[in-house]
Design brief:
This protein has 532 residues and is α/β, with parallel strands linked by helices.
C-alpha cells in the first residue's frame, strides 16, 4: 500500500513532470514521507540550511530544466520562512511546488502551537493550493501541478499532513497538459499591417522567450533592426549576434535606441522586469506573449497571445522597407556598452572583477548574479551565447539568490562550471549554504564583492543628502568563514592577485570562494548612466 500512498502518488506525479530532485528543510510530518517516497522512486533530496535558499534552489532548477522545482518545509515556522523564495518564484515566473507539513484536520482548533493558515499565508503568491488526502481525486492533484507550468508560470502549494501522507490514494492516468490557444486571425492581420508600415522596428525580448530562442532569433532577422533583451532573457539573442544591441530595463541607457523606433515588437516581454519609470516611447507596440495580461507600461496596438514560435512565424514574410543600417545598429551597441563602463583606478573595481572572472572562467561556465550594485557590470559583461547562460532574479530582484542558484546549477548540470557573483550583503543572507555546497561537492566558485556596505542602498541614501546610517557594515572575513565550512578560499586585495586566485579556484575540484576587496566609488556614475 505504501506505493499508493498520497506521498508516493505525489512523488510519482512529480516524476512524470520531470522532477528528479527536491530541496528543503524537513519537518517531522509529511516531509519525512516524501523524502522516503523520493528515495524509493529515484528523486534525490537536498537538505538546505534555510527554507528560502531551498526554494531558490528549486526555482533555479526549474529555470534550467523547464520542469517544476520542488521545496519541502515543516509547518508553521518552516512555512513562514519559505516566503521570500516563494515570492522569487512568483515574480521571476518559475514553476515551483512548495509542499508544507500540516496538522491533521482532526485536531480542529485544539492545537494552536506553531499553527498558521498556510493556504491564507501563501494565497497572494501561489496559483493554487490543495490539501490532499486519500479521498482526493488524482485529477485534482494533477491539475494543481499542471497549473505551475501554465503561463505565466509560477508556484503552487500542497499542504500535506503526516497522517494524510500515508493514506491510500486511487491510481491515476497520465498528465494531460493544457495547450496554449493560438492567436486570433484579426490580431495577426493587424500586427502584420503595423509591421508593413514600419521602417525602423526594434525587438524587445523578455523572459518568456527563453524557451523559444530559435523563434526569437528568426524574428530578429526578419525585422532586421536592433534587438534588446531583458536581464533574464540575456542570451536568447546571443550576445555576439550582429543585431543584438544590449539590455533593456526601462531606464535611460537604452532610450536613444528605442526613441528611433517607429514600431516596438515585444516577444515574451514580461513587464515584471522593468524598473518603475514611466514608458517614454511613442511608437506603437506589437506584443507577442504566452498569456494575456493587463497593460502596464504601454498599451499594445496589437497582441498575439499564444505560443511564441507561432506568433513570431505569423510576422514573417511581410513586405516593407528597412531603414536600419549595420552602422546605426553598431553605434547603439557601442553606446550601451559604454554606458555600462566604470572608471578605472589603482584599487580593484567591480568591473575589474567581472572582467577577470570572464577571462579565467572555463568554457561554458554559467554565472549566477545576486542583487546589488555589482549586478550592473556583471549582467552587462557576462557573455551569453544562449538562454540561461546567466541566472538572475529580476522580477523580485532578491538578495541571497546567487549562491543557492549556483548550487542548483551544479546539481542539475554537474559537468558545467558555475560562478556565483555575490555582494557581501547578499552572501551574509545565505552564508550557511556554503555548507550545502561543500557537503554536495558542488563545482562552483563564489566571488564575493566585499566593500562592507549595502552599496546600492548606500548610493540612494547619499543621493538624498542623508547621513550615512544603516547601510555600512563591519568588515567580514568571508575567506575564513568559507574555510570553516570546508571550501577552498582566498582573500584578494590587489589587482595582480585576481587572475592567479581565479585560476586556482576554477581548477579546484570542489567549491571555492574568493573574498575580493572592491572599491565601490564607481557605482554612482554607473547607476546614473543606466537609469537616469
Amino acid at each position: 500500500m505504501a506505493g499508493r500512498s498520497v506521498a508516493a502518488t505525489l512523488v510519482r506525479e512529480l516524476r512524470r513532470l520531470g522532477v528528479r530532485r527536491m530541496f528543503g528543510v524537513p519537518g517531522g510530518g509529511s516531509s519525512l514521507d516524501l523524502i522516503q517516497a523520493g528515495a524509493d522512486q529515484g528523486v534525490d533530496f537536498v537538505l538546505a540550511r534555510t527554507e528560502t535558499a531551498a526554494a531558490i534552489m528549486a526555482a533555479a532548477t526549474a529555470e534550467i530544466t523547464g520542469n517544476p522545482g520542488v521545496v519541502l518545509t515543516g509547518l508553521g515556522p518552516g512555512a513562514a520562512a519559505v516566503i521570500n523564495g516563494l515570492a522569487q518564484a512568483r515574480l521571476d515566473r518559475a514553476p515551483l511546488v512548495v509542499i508544507t507539513d500540516a496538522y491533521p484536520p482532526a485536531y480542529g482548533a485544539f492545537v494552536t502551537h506553531q499553527r498558521l493558515d498556510h493556504a491564507a499565508l501563501f494565497a497572494p503568491l501561489v496559483k493554487g493550493s490543495l490539501a490532499p488526502t486519500g479521498a482526493t481525486a488524482p485529477g485534482q492533484l494533477r491539475a494543481l501541478l499542471d497549473a505551475a507550468l501554465q503561463p505565466p508560470r509560477g508556484p503552487v502549494h500542497v499542504d500535506l499532513g503526516g497522517a494524510a501522507a500515508g493514506e491510500s490514494m486511487a491510481a491515476g492516468g497520465p498528465i494531460e497538459r493544457a495547450s496554449i490557444p493560438p492567436a486570433g486571425p484579426w490580431q495577426v492581420e493587424h500586427a502584420r499591417a503595423l509591421l508593413a508600415a514600419a521602417t525602423r522596428p526594434v525587438l524587445l525580448v523578455g523572459l518568456e522567450a527563453r524557451g523559444a530562442a530559435d523563434a526569437a532569433r528568426a524574428l530578429a532577422a526578419e525585422l532586421g533592426g536592433p534587438a534588446l533583451t531583458t536581464w533574464k532573457a540575456k542570451g536568447v539573442i546571443a550576445d555576439d549576434d550582429r543585431l543584438r544591441v544590449g539590455l533593456v530595463a526601462g531606464g535611460a541607457a537604452e532610450a536613444a535606441c528605442l526613441a528611433e523606433a517607429d514600431l516596438i515588437v515585444q516577444l515574451g516581454f514580461d513587464p515584471v522586469e522593468l524598473i518603475p519609470q514611466p514608458w517614454r516611447y511613442v511608437a506603437p507596440v506589437v506584443d507577442l506573449a504566452e498569456a494575456a495580461r493587463a497593460a502596464h507600461y504601454a498599451r499594445p496596438a496589437a497582441s498575439l497571445i499564444g505560443p511564441l514560435a507561432q506568433g513570431a512565424a505569423a510576422l514573417s514574410g511581410v513586405s516593407r522597407r528597412n531603414a536600419w543600417t549595420a552602422r546605426a545598429i553598431r553605434a547603439h551597441r557601442e553606446r550601451l556598452h559604454a554606458a555600462h563602463a566604470m572608471a578605472r583606478s589603482a584599487a580593484i573595481g567591480p568591473q575589474d572583477v567581472v572582467e577577470a572572472v570572464i577571462a579565467a572562467a572555463p568554457e561554458g561556465c554559467r554565472a549566477t548574479i545576486d542583487a546589488g550594485a555589482h549586478m550592473f557590470p556583471a549582467i552587462a559583461r557576462w557573455p551569453a551565447p544562449g538562454p540561461n547562460a546567466v541566472l538572475i532574479s529580476n522580477g523580485l530582484a532578491t538578495m541571497g539568490f546567487a549562491l543557492p542558484a549556483a548550487i542548483a546549477s551544479a546539481l542539475a548540470e554537474p559537468a558545467r562550471p558555475v560562478v556565483a557573483l555575490v555582494g557581501d550583503g547578499g552572501l551574509m543572507m545565505c552564508l550557511g549554504e556554503l555548507a550545502t555546497a561543500a557537503e554536495r561537492r558542488c563545482r562552483i566558485v563564489v566571488v564575493a564583492f566585499n566593500d562592507a556596505a549595502l552599496s546600492l542602498i548606500d548610493l540612494k541614501q547619499a543621493g538624498r543628502d542623508l547621513e550615512p546610517r544603516g547601510c555600512r557594515t563591519a568588515p567580514v572575513d568571508f575567506a575564513a568563514a568559507a574555510r570553516a565550512f570546508g571550501l577552498a578560499a582566498e582573500r584578494v586585495e590587489a589587482k595582480a592577485e585576481l587572475r592567479p586566485a581565479l585560476d586556482r579556484a576554477f581548477a579546484h575540484e570542489g567549491p571555492g570562494l574568493l573574498d575580493v576587496q572592491v572599491d565601490p566609488r564607481g557605482y554612482g556614475a554607473l547607476l546614473q548612466a543606466l537609469r537616469g
